[in-house]
Each structure stands twice: as structure tokens, then as C-alpha cells.
Amino acid sequence: MNAILIPAYKPDMKLVDLTNRLLTHDDLKMVVVDDGSGEAFQNVFQALDPRVHLISYPVNKGKGGALKTGIRYIYENMPECERLVTADADGQHKYEDIRNVIDKSIASPGALILGSREFDGNVPFRSKFGNFMTRQVFAIASGVKVRDTQTGLRGFDRKGMEVFLDVPGDRYEYEINVLLTAARAEIPIQEITIETVYINENESSHFHPIKDSFKIYACILKFACSSLISFVVDYLLFLLFSSFLGTVVSNLLARLISASVNFTLNRKVVFKGNEDTIPAIIKYAILALIVLAVDTAILKLLTDVFGWNKALSKVITEFVVFLINFPVQGRIVYRKHKNN
Predict the structure, then answer these.
(1) Which residues pair with 7 in a beta bridge?
(2) Beta-carbon neighbour count of residue 124 at 10 Å?
(3) Comparing 45-54, 66-75, 159-168, 203-212, which segment has the lowest mean pLDDT?
(4) Distance separating alpha carbons of residues 107 and 100, to the nearest angstrom
(5) Residues 130 and 239: beta-carbon distance below 8 Å
(6) Residues 71-120: pLDDT tens digits?
(7) Distance (Å, rounded) from C-alpha 90 to C-alpha 3?
(8) Model confidence pLDDT, tens digit, residues 258-294
(9) Phi/psi of residue 31, each to 5°?
(10) How many whole angstroms separate alpha carbon 60 and alpha carbon 79?
(11) Which neighbouring-strand residues pair with 134?
């Protein structure tokens, strides 16, 4: 048995049409979450087939909140459902594509299946640009490339339900946080192509480009802040030590002190992984030694070979280190393990 979960905020009758067609299959159970749509939209929910499990609450929680509410309901009350497929209520996910995601999920136990759009044809600019940006951020953050990070059409099994219940985020950032969690927990992410559908320039979307994009990029922004704090500590100590010590020794001492600051901030604030402390420290130390060697080599090249100013050379070197550190730390050092 499979469950279909549809979070709905101020939907129209396309939701009823989709659920009615899906209910023609005996292997499906339908769950719709009314995400605080209000009285004006109750006629749509009242038109749903009685076989649809409807969850309603008065105040809008956001798409992430609605998804987690539905996932928890299915996980706790429908043990017969071996997998779950999430779909949007606005008509962007076609019946045939939902069935294809179900079939792919059945054929790929343990994987997270994405119904990914090609973004060809007449695609609104904000949708095409938004997906391009989040795709690049996700690739940097996780080391995994996917074509459509913002798709709401996803399939996963009961183990995925358990893992994704603990993913932070109440609005659209929840969906990219799910991808980050899956990548770090080594849950395979697979994609199948679905039709790209936008209705009236996607005017029904409740995505707020500035507010929701900020939340989506929160992980890399927090890492950047953590790196900036560690850089300031490292930079000031390097300048202090280099006033009476050589370049290599100064860089080593400054890095040892700033590394402890960086490790603590990333572990507690940025990645929030469940890796045990000692293994995380060991892997961080190995990474730090590798990065230190690269860092020192670049710094020596810029200062001793090219004769550049030490302060400028340090800034350039740390930028290169930042580009290396973010994906490696998130993917290896602070990764989340799948629950056994």
C-alpha cells in the first residue's frame, strides 16, 4: 500500500480532480493537509471524496509544517503504507507523473525519488532562476548534483518518513533541507523526468522570493558566518604572530586556535550532524591538516614567490579554503547517519 500526501493552502478544484483520479487505484491512500486555508476555501475541501483523510488546522504553518504534519500522520496511523509520495495541490503534478514516481519508489527501496522538471519551454523566469540558484547551492553544500531541488513531487519509504520528520524548516526551506539531510545520511537520491507545468505564470505559488530564498540558503549563510568568525580569529592571530615569527609557524599557530572555534560553531550551529564527537574531531583534524598544508602552500607561493603583501595573500588563501571546506565538512565531518 502507498500513501499520497498533498499539502494544500488555498487550493482550487484541481485538487479535487487529482484526488478523484488517484483514488481509482486500490493501492493508494490519500492524505490532504488543509494548511490554514480559511473559510473561503472550505468548499474545495468539502468536495473531496470521503476516502480522503483530511487534516485541518486554523493557522497556516507553511509547506514544511504541512508536510511534516502529514508525514507524521501517515507514519503513526497507516503502518500498512510502505511508502509515501508527496505532490502539490495546484495542478503542477500530473497524474501520470505521480504514478511514475510511485513505480520508481517501489523499484528503488531506500531511495529518495524526485520527480524532476527539465525547465524547458515557457517557464517563468523566477522559477527557472530560483531553481538554478538552489541547484548550485545544493551542489556546493552536499557534493550531490540534482536537476530540480524545488520539486514537491517526491517518493520515499517508511525509513525516509522517520528521517524526514526531524528535518528543520516550516516553509519552502524544508524541501531543500530534506535533500541536504538525505545527502548527508547517504540516502540515495534518484530522479525521473516529469512534465514541466506552469499555470498562469505560476501565479498560484505561495513562494516568497526574498523571505523563502533566504531560508533556503540559510545553511550556506550560517557556514559563511562561521567561516568569517574563524577567519577573523585566524587573520588577527596570524598578523600578531607574524610580527615576530616566520610565516609557516605563524600560520600554524593561528590555524590551530581558529580551528577549534570553527569546529565548535559548525558542529553546534551550522550542520547539526549526529556524528559522534570523537570521530567528528578525528575527521575534522585530518581535514584541517590537509587544508592547512594547502593553505600554507598557497600562502607561501603568494608571499615568497610572487612577493605579495601578507595581508592580501591571507584573504585570497582563506577564500580558496572556504570553497573547499563547506562541501567536505557537510558531507563527511558532520554528516547525519541513517537511523538503524
Answers:
(1) 33
(2) 14
(3) 203-212
(4) 11
(5) no
(6) 999 999 999 999 999 999 987 889 999 999 999 999 999 999 999 987 66
(7) 19
(8) 888 878 777 776 665 556 677 777 877 887 788 778 8
(9) -130, 125
(10) 27
(11) none
- What's the CA dihedral at 85, 89, 95, 96 to 10 degrees? -70
Instruction: List, in order of start, the domains of the chain with CATH numbers.
Output: 2-216 (3.90.550.10), 220-333 (no CATH)
Low-confidence winner among 30-44, 160-174, 189-203, 236-250 (lowest mean pLDDT): 189-203
Give the Cα separation of 109 and 157 in Å (integer): 7
Give all strands (DSSP E) within 41-185, no chain letters. Answer: 53-57, 83-86, 112-117, 154-157
Question: Cβ–Cβ contacts within 10 Å for residue 79, how many?
Answer: 10
Are 30 and 57 in contact by the 8 Å Cβ rule? The answer is no
Cell of 27: 493501492
* Amino acid residing at 334: Y
The number of residues in the chain equals 340
pLDDT at 339 over 60: no
Helix/strand/coil for 85: strand
Q: How far is it, in rounded angstroms, from Cα 96 to Cα 197? A: 13
pLDDT (average), residues 131-157: 82
